[in-house]
Amino acid sequence: MAASSIFHPHRITLKPQTPTLPNPPTKPHFRFSSTTTTIRALSQPNSPPPPPTVTSKPRRPADENIRDEARRHNTTHTHHFSAKYVPFGADADASDFTESYSLDEIVYRSQSGGLLDVRHDMDALKKYDGTYWRDLFDSRVGKTTWPYGSGVWSKKEWVLPEIDSDDIVSAFEGNSNLFWAERFGKQFLGMNDLWVKHCGNSHTGSFKDLGMTVLVSQVNRLRKMNRPVVGVGCASTGDTSAALSAYCAAAGIPSIVFLPANRISIAQLVQPIANGAFVLSIDTDFDGCMQLIREVTAELPIYLANSLNSLRLEGQKTAAIEILQQFDWQVPDWVIVPGGNLGNIYAFYKGFHMCKELGLVDKIPRLVCAQAANANPLYLHYKSGWAEFKPIKANTTFASAIQIGDPVSIDRAVYALKNSDGIVEEATEEELMDAMGQADSTGMFICPHTGVALTALIKLRNSGVIKPTDKTVVVSTAHGLKFTQSKIDYHSEEIKDMACRYANPPVHVKADFGSVMDVLKTYLLSKA
Ligand SMILES: Cc1ncc(COP(=O)(O)O)c(C=O)c1O
Ligand SMILES: N[C@@H](CCOP(=O)(O)O)C(=O)O
Q: Which of 474, 482, 522, 502 is nearest to 179 (CA)?
């Protein structure tokens, strides 16, 4: 198929309405280096860690860039943190796993065909107490020191501890804003402590950047080690492919993306095209693309970039750590995450759980996974009391990035929900679009997936499960600008069987002073 023909004709109509009114340590001994923020051992054992010293950094030589600067300082690294792949669900207390793999191996599945998990050497990390880690992470926020200026790599010791900073491919992703949804909370839910974590305010416009920086960095390392990786590939509903192609392009690594034809937004489609990926538009849905990429990556030297690959989740889990950090290490009562392939809900669990295990906080939030009713295999599984899981054929949904019927991380999601006293909710098309309309009317510009998460919040609030004063975080997973067609359809009031209660179409007015004044006066009277 010619590249141009895969741009299916998108209907962009926003008809003006007739002029009516618009509606309403005995821990280790260490010290932070003010210039490098690396950890140095001090000679005195058993002394508590001092706080980081905050001094201004000397300007680096003019012919040195930030990566060179990091390389120069790298010699001071003395820590011994490590991580490896183990079968997902392997006993965390077992010090010697019978099956484990180096992260430098190319492996996505355990011997039994199950999922893998990245297991950190927790004993090594536990040699430093919670205060140490909190101070270390806090000392790195918002800086340009390579690679710690990234919200992911500011937690490098917990992510990929052994990678050389030189191999990291980063766009300084993460550090996304935690928005106090004051008006939405007050007006629609009577809540005063409602927050939206805008993970879509990111390099490629979705939370996928958090995982992709980790995966592509590891690929960069593998290629330098002459491992057989010619390119990196994924199946995608649009966001994974955008992130993969951007990070690969930044590193000069070929990327290959399998997209379900005519099922992703035009803004998402153009991202890998612009970033030079090899784009296959395939006549199937996401689950069909996922099946194909799994078969292809088993045959060809293409590294798999979907979240089946547990490396991705190491980056994504930093969003959870970041939320705690943004709350000055206070733990929210609830965190609500939209779910599709279901890697992210586990990533959040893992981030929160690590913070608890390493003493940064003393509990974890309750997690809610929100699905579109048109693509709800996890919801059905939950409602059946976690009886046997049955994949489904996912139907079309405005939340197109989560139109997934056979999620690869189902076991991870179930684990996360069971261990966080979690809940699964669902949203109909009308509910998710209305929630998006409501949120946008209070100054946000969210994607339909965030509308799914907000619907879950509305339902749990209305049923009294979530209390008005509960500190609640809704995870916004992509930028609304990637999904403008859904908003155009909604505000045009042209969606079949949908009332579009919060539609706000433009008013068409004749180009004369009197007509404009008439319309404005009526409008102002309605607001007075
Ligand atoms: C915008 C958006 N939100 C939510 C999700 C769901 O994340 P996960 O697949 O990790 O459940 C995805 C991808 O699946 C996505 O692209
Ligand atoms: N929404 C995803 C679907 C694939 O999820 P992944 O996390 O397994 O890559 C996308 O944007 O492609």
A: 474
- Check if 340 has its Cβ closer than 6 Å to any atom of ligand 1: yes
H or E element, residue 266: helix 266-274
Return the bridge partners of 338, or none: 370
Q: Give, for 72, the enclosing helix (H) or strand (E).
A: helix 66-73
Q: Is 435 helix (H, G, I), strand (E, B) or coil?
A: helix
What does 324-384 look like in DSSP terms, one character per residue? HHHTTTPPPSEEEEE-SSSHHHHHHHHHHHHHHHTTS-S--PEEEEEEEGGG-HHHHHHHT
- Please answer whether residues 168 and 64 qualify as being in contact, where contact means their C-beta atoms are separated by less than 8 angstroms: no
Report the residue among 204, 259, 307, 397 best suited for mutation to probe ligand 2: largest number of ligand atoms under 8 A from its CB.
307
- What is the complex's ipTM, to 2 decimals? 0.99
CB of 398 closer than 8 Å to CB of 431: no
- The secondary structure element, H or E, covering residue 50 is none
| pLDDT tens figures, 7-65 | 443 444 555 544 333 333 444 333 333 333 333 333 333 344 454 555 677 888 888 89
Nearest to 477 by CA among 297, 316, 241: 316
Pairing of strands 278-282, 255-260: parallel
Contact 204, 242 (CB under 8 A): yes
| 235, β-bridge pairs | 258
Ligand 2 pocket, residues with Cβ under 6 angstroms:
208, 234, 236-241, 306-307, 340-341, 343, 401
